[in-house]
Design goal:
Layout (H helix, E strand, L loop, with lengths): L3 E3 L4 E6 L11 E8 L4 E3 L2 E2 L3 E3 L1 H5 L5 E2 L4 E4 L7 E3 L4 E3 L3 E6 L5 H10 L1 H6 L11 H5 L2 E3 L3 H40 L10 E4 L4 E6 L9 E2 L4 E4 L15 E3 L1 H6 L4 E2 L4 E4 L7 E3 L7 E3 L2 E6 L6 H9 L1 H8 L2 E2 L5 E2 L1 H5 L2 E4 L2 H40 L1
Parallel strand pairs: 3-10, 16-21
Antiparallel strand pairs: 1-12, 2-11, 3-6, 4-5, 7-10, 8-9, 8-11, 13-25, 14-22, 15-17, 16-17, 18-21, 19-20, 19-22, 23-24
């Protein structure tokens, strides 16, 4: 049977953080790293951006957490946990755990990362969610012998490295596709290659908006027609989780919002301008509050249009054309009026073929990343549940 203890029992001391006065120049640009929750990216990834002086530590609520201990974010950025690799000070959003010799810091970081959900469940505060020190020290953790802790930590560290490598590989495929696009076509807004520029409306058979309004009363079970919404759109393709279905009567009545394979869907709100290609897996579907583009294949390649829409430069243009007081919404006429480069169609087809090869490799990498993530989560659960 696992020995269960409270977090407070494995700490010599728990110290709080604080922020030195920002108008005191003598407090800043010193030699002591000072971090906020934004500087913690992962279990061993602390990247200090600011440094303070010993006088700042003495005159403020911040404290210095010695190297080799654990910092836990308990307010803004709730749930982040990391092991310190150097002495550092920190803001009021975190608590510093100075550990007893009976606990391994790496083991505790993994254990507490599993308890993030517990942190969120006990979160308090209306505007800034957080947990109190009492909440923190009361968290129960399994505590085997030190040698077993170190074995578990080493195993989880290895699995963690594998999943990070897989994520990095996925990001490199994205970088490769971006480099290919820029090499062939250049910046689609700056148009340094001098391509003919035309309105997007000229390159499409239609640009319209899907159904707008309340349609909950038309929802049905999975025997109905898929209803694609903003949450179903991803640059990697349609996301079929949390899919809603509508009645066939609704589908037949709302012809304008129907989509077919090869259409491009654009989010009207939320992640404004994000484009997604409807693949062959969709035989029929309807849409809610998204813009529908149907490219004219005689003038443009859908994947070229999609990649141009999702480029950073074009997304910035689209963002500048959103309207609405509280929730920014893309105007369909603004999408129709977007100025698009028109490279030769054979070059667009070449790009689409090369992109398809990259996407094949990316799909394999995504599968590998899912497997390494599942392995890590399985090891985490087996160690701490």
């Amino acid at each position: 049977m696992k020995r269960i203890v409270k977090l407070g029992e494995v700490c010599e001391k728990i110290i709080s953080g604080g922020t030195p006065k920002t108008d005191r120049k003598d407090f800043w640009n010193g030699s002591i790293p000072w971090i906020t929750s934004a500087d913690i990216q992962g279990n061993a990834e602390i990247s200090p951006k600011k440094f303070i002086t010993p006088e700042a530590v003495s005159a403020s609520a911040t404290n210095v957490l010695p190297k080799g201990n654990v910092i836990v974010v308990t307010r803004v950025g709730l749930g982040k946990v990391a092991k310190t690799t150097e002495d550092l000070a920190f803001s009021q959003d975190s608590q510093g755990l100075i550990l007893k010799s009976t606990v391994d810091a790496g083991y505790l970081v993994h254990c507490l990362s599993k308890k993030v959900q517990r942190f969120k469940e006990v979160a308090r505060g209306a505007t800034i969610k957080g947990v109190t020190r009492d909440d923190l020290i009361s968290i129960q953790i399994p505590l085997p012998e030190l040698a077993e802790q170190q074995r578990i930590a080493a195993l989880l560290n290895h699995a963690d490295r594998l999943r990070h490598l897989d994520r990095q590989l996925l990001a490199r495929y994205d970088d490769l596709a971006q480099s290919l696009f820029l090499d062939l076509f250049g910046d689609p807004v700056g148009n340094e290659k001098g391509w003919e520029m035309r309105k997007l409306d000229d390159l499409c058979k239609k640009i319209t908006v899907g159904f707008v309004g309340t349609c909950e009363k038309f929802y049905t079970d999975s025997s109905g027609i898929p209803l694609l919404r903003t949450g179903n759109l991803s640059e990697d393709g349609l996301v079929m989780k949390n899919l809603k279905y509508v009645t066939k009567e609704f589908h037949m009545k709302n012809q304008k919002s129907k989509v077919t394979p090869g259409d491009i869907l654009i989010a009207r709100h939320g992640d404004n301008g994000k484009g997604c290609l409807v693949g062959s897996e969709i035989t029929e579907a309807n849409t809610l509050n998204v813009v529908i583009l149907r490219p004219n294949h005689k003038l443009s390649e859908p994947r070229f249009i999609l990649f141009t829409l999702n480029s950073q430069a074009m997304r910035a243009v689209v963002a500048g054309k959103t309207g609405g007081a509280t929730q920014k919404v893309i105007n369909t006429k603004a999408i129709q009026a977007l100025r698009f480069p028109v490279p030769p169609l054979p070059l667009q087809h070449r790009f689409a073929d090369l992109l398809a090869e990259i996407e094949k490799q990316k799909a394999l990498a995504r599968q590998q990343a899912a497997q390494s993530e599942a392995l890590f989560q399985s090891l985490l659960s087996r160690s701490f549940d």
